[in-house]
Design brief:
With 214 residues, this protein is α+β, with helices and mostly antiparallel strands. It is 43% helix and 13% strand.
């Protein structure tokens, strides 16, 4: 899993979805999380000082980023989430600040649901209460944009969570372009459902592409 997290960090950095900040976590034995350390993700190796998060602990372990509460509370609320990705996709962040919704205008955008939820609170999520509020706003969605503060995606695996972050930014760029050009028309519910059914096949290919490009 350390190897997988290191690959995720390098892929996110190469795709310009993170700079100095960002983190990724994955479930390991006993329901705990293995999380990337507070360093630029592009510098990660298998030997980096990853942190192990106990979801029932009253505080974070030494070496964990303070925003680890995001990962803890999402993992507690979403037992099926195998991995959580935190990044700063620039277009998605800008659209949240402008009040422009991110809706599925192309097939892959449907992987994110009918509309990506936004957490309307730009304060850093560095305590359990804010982490819980974020998890509540995320609900069952695969992605969430934090106003003025990047985004979070979840997936069954590290690769899926990272691929969805890439899809989020691609969908945001398409929404920005379409909004500037005219009136965006989202895919119909039936079209969205057809694309979501293909997600398990297509997301691993996106993850493979991101690794090859890093």
């Amino acid at each position: 899993m350390r190897t997988e997290l290191a690959r995720a960090g390098r892929a996110l950095a190469a795709a310009r979805l993170v700079t100095a900040f960002g983190h990724v976590s994955a479930r390991i034995a006993d329901g705990r999380l293995l999380m990337t350390p507070p360093v630029p993700l592009g510098t990660l190796t298998e030997d980096s000082p990853y942190a192990v998060l106990d979801l029932d602990a009253g505080d974070l372990p030494g070496g964990a980023p303070r925003e680890a509460w995001i990962h803890v509370e999402i993992a507690r609320a979403r037992p099926g989430a195998g991995a959580i990705c935190r990044a700063q996709p620039p277009t998605a962040t800008a659209l949240a600040s402008a009040g422009v919704p991110i809706r599925p205008l192309h097939g892959q955008g449907a992987f994110l649901g009918p509309e990506v939820p936004v957490l309307d609170d730009a304060v850093l999520v560095r305590d359990r209460a804010r982490g819980r509020a974020l998890a509540d706003r995320l609900g069952g969605a695969p992605a969430l944009v934090l106003r003025g503060n990047g985004a979070v995606t979840t997936g069954a695996s590290v690769g899926e969570a990272v691929a969805l972050m890439w899809v989020l930014e691609a969908s945001a760029r398409m929404n920005a372009t379409a909004t500037a050009a005219g009136t965006p028309v989202p895919l119909s519910p039936a079209e969205q459902e057809a694309w979501r059914a293909a997600g398990p096949e297509l997301l691993p290919r996106i993850w493979s592409h991101l690794q090859e490009s890093s």
